[in-house]
Amino acid sequence: MKSFEPSHPSVECPVEQTQTHPPATPQSEAAVVRAVLAGSLIFSHLPASEREWLLAGGDVQHLKANQIVFRSGDPATQVFCVLRGSVEVETAGSVVLNRLRPGEMFGEIGVIEGRSRTATVRAAEPCALLAIDQSDFVGLLVSYPALGFRLVAALARRLHQLTDVVGSWCETGVKARSV
């Protein structure tokens, strides 16, 4: 198993560790993480040993409905994989841009760019997330270039979805603003 050394001091995640359901036993929660990672577009092609490494080093976080994962402008120190439930990605004006479900990842843009968060993400319902530290995620991208290709494919799919959303706004009379 690889061990990636952090290149930055650890920063505590702003997500509260609040459970909205009975705590899962470590075995059953581990089984959920394994199953979601194995079925994920991004992580499914990693060797099983690396997915186990993510399970061991990641932090499973349980959120209540409407609980904020992070806000636009927050420092980007982790990426997240939805394990159960769903989250919504919102603009500063609380416009929902996307809803992400189990197996989907978010938070990678700020981590890869080394910039702050570009959107606010909140739990759309009670959910569980796997948080992966920035240095661990970047280490995986360096070690497994195919992971980067899968990430680009997922980002391209999101861009197409966002283009469709903006197109529908334009068709319904919402004025587009140039950036």
Could you explain how this protein is built, in words?
The protein is α+β, with helices and mostly antiparallel strands. The chain has a single domain (26-171), classed as Sandwich (Jelly Rolls). Helices cover 37% and strands 21% of the residues. It is built from 5 helices and 8 strands, in the order ααββββββαββαα. The chain has helices spanning 26-39, 48-57, 108-113, 134-143, 145-171, and strands spanning 59-63, 68-70, 78-84, 87-90, 96-100, 105-106, 120-123, 127-133. The strands form 2 sheets. Strands 1-8-3-6 form a 4-stranded antiparallel sheet. Strands 2-7-4-5 form a 4-stranded antiparallel sheet. Strand 4 (87-90) and strand 5 form a beta hairpin. Helix 4 (134-143) packs across helix 5. The longest helix has 27 residues, at 145-171. The model is unreliable at 1-25 (pLDDT under 50).
Task: Give me some keywords for this one.
single chain; 179 residues; Jelly Rolls; four-stranded antiparallel beta sheet; 21% strand; disordered N terminus
Would you spell out the secondary-structure blueprint of this structure?
Layout (H helix, E strand, L loop, with lengths): L25 H14 L8 H10 L1 E5 L4 E3 L7 E7 L2 E4 L5 E5 L4 E2 L1 H6 L6 E4 L3 E7 H10 L1 H27 L8
Antiparallel strand pairs: 1-8, 2-7, 3-6, 3-8, 4-5, 4-7
Helix pairs in contact: 1-2, 4-5
The ordered string of helix (H) and strand (E) elements is: HHEEEEEEHEEHH
Please report the total strand number as a whole number.
Answer: 8
The CATH topology label is Jelly Rolls
Oligomer: single chain
Tally of helical runs: 5
Proportion of helical residues = 25-40%
N-to-C terminal Cα separation, in Å?
44 Å
Order the strands across the largest sheet as they lie in space: 1-8-3-6
Biggest sheet record:
4 strands, antiparallel
